[in-house]
């Protein structure tokens, strides 16, 4: 018998010409929490997908419990007691929690929701999960969905759990709760692999860290011997200054005045409730909040993609003072706003579903907002091509050619294309939603630097973010949203993480929301 | 950093499991035996049937072995191709056709006992034996291509317009209405000489064209408006509009029968609205030359429209993601309606060309199901107008070929001929899979200690 729950030997996986994993060998001990650390595109998820039966390695072998195993499908993985919680949940929205759990049962045997529930209840009690088994998935919060996914995996009888970026969508409190559960599972003899690129979480939760870089195994470190600096160096291969280099704002001038902005969703519920603030050219205004608390609606309303409720107003000042001619932006579609001469750039959260056209190349994506210019019936492709080449060059976008569909690029490169285009439009207001979500440290810093540079050039930057450390280091002021309401504006230079975190959750408690 | 747990011990190769290899061979042999048995001329039918069943079972066994048969590394894996060279693409297609012809040869041999080569030659002659046949093929090709071109922008926008048939019919109806009623009106309003001049001049054609365009556009506009404003399902909507169009046309058909329409043609005596015949390739009285020329022109125009114009760009964006279109400041509503009107207008013009040129009449069969065939053409060509021309030509070639076979051999009925063309189509469409994916077989590269 071995004390390895799973061992990978010389695993290589390629997608076409892209090598996702090259000769990776690693192991996980029984009863161990292992962090799999690496930048974006370093092949963490691909490697785990091979254990979970989603992909099949091109070469190399996997040993489960000391014996060679062929994992050809998730069902094979299940049989070997391996379960994975994917970053994008694989749940059926119209089913209840219990029905979703029942889906993973073997087809043999009688279908009895009652026995499924009984067993699921047992699992919940054992680990202290808070889960309503009769709740429909579409009514659940992200954290509840995640809990359900974990219960599902445990229900299958998994002894090895793989969690892909589980904390990306959680609040600090929810993260803490998840970590407690993970520790409980470890004490129960289960092995856990957690994929993440948040260093402090790695240090907090794991026993050992394995680092991948560009698809290759770099090494492993016991967490008690690891430091942020060591891990960062292993991850990126070179020292990265963690200093964003925020400048002091100079010559602030008013750009946007948002007053009593409310937005109703399709069910007539106020998702954004009476938000008022000013945005100044020459500063970065951060917007903090648990995701889904009105950030998306706020930005989309300003960009003309959402209708504001009655009494809302968004005033734009083309000149640098309040007495100048002010223009109402609300209620105008994006094309009309642009026609008014307002240079509003917007990097939306959904990059390929909203900001870019996935099937088009960089060049064609460059003209998404400007293709209408000129009177010709034909599109002018020379300028966008030139711009695409410039952005590819200056931001280091990795793509075979500027005609390659952007959906084939990695997440970080897609974001560079989008941010590059929005900045190239010479904006006076630049709004970004989760600009660094899913990006590695390297790319993230490129983005921070670009935003900082825009600020210095007098652009009013609005930065919706989720990493509180970054918000506090990057922004000048931080507006905190909670339950769609404004819960205060903080001076980023004086505030603390705890203070922001408190404002993100306090209002929700008052309203009795279970978040 | 070094990897501490990888030993450098010599590694032995593991052989593919003997069991699975030999069973696979056995299955292949059984399938082959069945195949040979099928070809045995003169054998007792029972023997043939038994061997055929054996062959089926063996193939099933093979498939089972290939996919689920053992718990080893999968025998066969499907891998997406990153890119494929043009020559390889052509190679795949040619081998698909060769394979199709081989399978067809088996079918012809086993079922009819004819010489497959003879049958293929006959098939080829269906289009190319005489100039008249060539012209007939072109006559049928042009409307199919035009309708495909008409549908392409809608499909590119991800608007499932399956109403080409109805839009063509309504366009045809527009022309027919003008042919039937305008001469009557003109004859009553003007003195005879003026009337005759008007009726033989370009005015009547212009009116026909306008009426066709209007009705075709209307049939495209209605589902688009409902989709844009109320989010109705355009597939059902356009499909149902076909039946409405068929019913309207059939009521006019009944109304005109024996009056305006004689010997199956409108304006039999006056020939008002008929396109003038010309002699092409020695074939006299070709009334559909304009259709062919128009199809060629539209092919180039649609190619440019989709690829180089702002409208084309908007269509691509809307087709990819409506949210992106909104973000870019494109009015999805406007683009949807505009594109469907264009689609409808083109279909309407096809109706005009058919009524005035090819048929000089109208019936519910005027569109000949081309409204549906065109969907296949547009998709197979991935909305590239030039590919559409090739694919529609190929479809027409197959159709005419199968007709020729049916006529030439008594033993071949229409169904047998359809099976032959069906097999060819099956292989060609199937080859698309091999252009997008490649197969990776299990190899003995697996290593174990």
Description:
The two termini of chain A are 44 Å apart. In chain A, a hairpin with a 2-residue loop joins β1 and β2. With 515 residues, chain A is α/β, with parallel strands linked by helices. Chain A is globular, with a radius of gyration of 24 Å. The longest helix of chain A is centred in the middle third of the chain and has 16 residues, at 172-187. The model of chain A is unreliable at 508-515 (pLDDT under 50). Chain A contains 17 helices and 20 strands. Chain A is 33% helix and 25% strand. With 449 residues, chain B is mainly α. Among the domains of chain B are: 7-74, no CATH class; 119-177 and 205-254 and 273-408, no CATH class. Chain B has 16 helices and eight strands. Chain B has helices spanning 18-39, 45-67, 86-112, 116-128, 131-156, 164-189, 192-200, 202-230, 234-256, 289-308, 310-320, 322-327, 332-359, 370-380, 385-408, 414-436; strands spanning 12-13, 76-80, 261-262, 265-266, 278-280, 283-286, 437-441, 447-448. In chain B, the strands form four sheets. A two-stranded antiparallel ribbon of chain B has the order 1-8. In chain B, α4 (116-128) crosses α15 (385-408), α6 (164-189) packs across α14 and α8 packs antiparallel against α13. Chain B starts with 11 loop residues before the first strand and ends with a strand. The relative contact order of chain B is 0.16. The chains are: A alpha/beta (515), B mainly alpha (449). The interface between A and B is large, with 46 and 36 residues.
Give helix and strand order of chain B, one letter per element, not per position.
EHHEHHHHHHHEEEEHHHHHHHEE
Ranges of chain A where pLDDT stays below 50 over 5 or more residues in a row are: 508-515
Number of strands of chain B: 8
Q: What composes the largest sheet of chain B? A: 2 strands, antiparallel
Overall average pLDDT of chain A? 84
Strand content of chain B: 5-15%
Q: What is the strand arrangement across the widest sheet of chain B? A: 1-8
Structural class of chain B: mainly alpha
Count every helix of chain A, treating DSSP H or I runs of 4 or more residues as helices. 17
